[in-house]
Amino acid sequence: MERSDKQLAESIKSNSHTLYILSVEQLTSLHQDTTPTDKANIARSSADYVSSMLDIKTCIKMVRDLGAKGRVYEKVIDGKQYIIFKGHPGLRTIFTGTKYLASNAKVVDMVIGKAAVKNSARLGGRLTIFLTVPLIILEHILKDEFLLSDLVADLAVSIVKVGVSSILAAVIATAVGTATTIAAAPLAVAIFVGLASGYTLNKIDDRFSITIKLGQVLRDIEDNTIGAFSRGMWELEKTLRWQIVNGISPGKGIFYP
Length: 257
Known about the structure:
By secondary structure, the chain is mainly alpha-helical. It is built from 9 helices and 3 strands.
C-alpha cells in the first residue's frame, strides 16, 4: 500500500502543470514583452556595427603582417600612385613586396592609402544601409500600430546618420594618413570615429526626439494635403447623396447655381 502511494505521488509530480490566471492588462503586457519587435530591435542595433567589426578584423590582419608601427608611403611614379612599404618584406605574409599600385587588390582590401580609406568608408556606409533598411521596415511592420510617416522618418534619419558617420570617418582618417606614415593609423582612426560619431548621433536623436518629431511633421503635411483633399471629397459625396435623397438636383449650389 505504501509503495502504491509513493508511485501515485511520483506520477502526480511528474505530470503536474502550472496554471496562471492573468488579467487582460497583464496578458497585453506579456504579449508586448515577448513580441518579435524586440528581436528586430536587437538585429537592427547589431547591423550598425557589422561594418566596424569587419574593419577591426582587417586592422588586426594588417598589424599582424606589418607590425603595429609598420610604415607606408604614398608616391607618384610615372603618373601612377604607389604604396611603398618600409621594413623587411621577408617577414611579411600578405605584402611580400616593397611597392604596390594604390589600386592593387591587396592594398584596397587591407585599406591602405587615402583612396582605399575613402573607398572603405563608402562601402561600409553602403553595407550598413543595406543591412539596416530591411530591419527598420521589419521593425515598423511588427509594431501594433504601423504608420508610414514614422517609417519614412526613421529611414530618412537613419540614412543621414550613416552618411554623416561615413563622411566624417573618411575625412579624419584621410587627414591622419597625411600626417603619419603608420599603416594601421588611418583605418584605426576611421573605426573609432565611425563608432563614436554613430553613437553620438544616436544619443542626439534620442535626446531631441528628432525621428519622432520628423514623423509628426510628415503626418501634419499629409493631413494638410492628402488628408484635406480626402476630407473635402468625403464632404462633397455626403452633400451629393443628401441632395439625391431629398430630390434636389445633384451638384446644385456646388457646381452651378
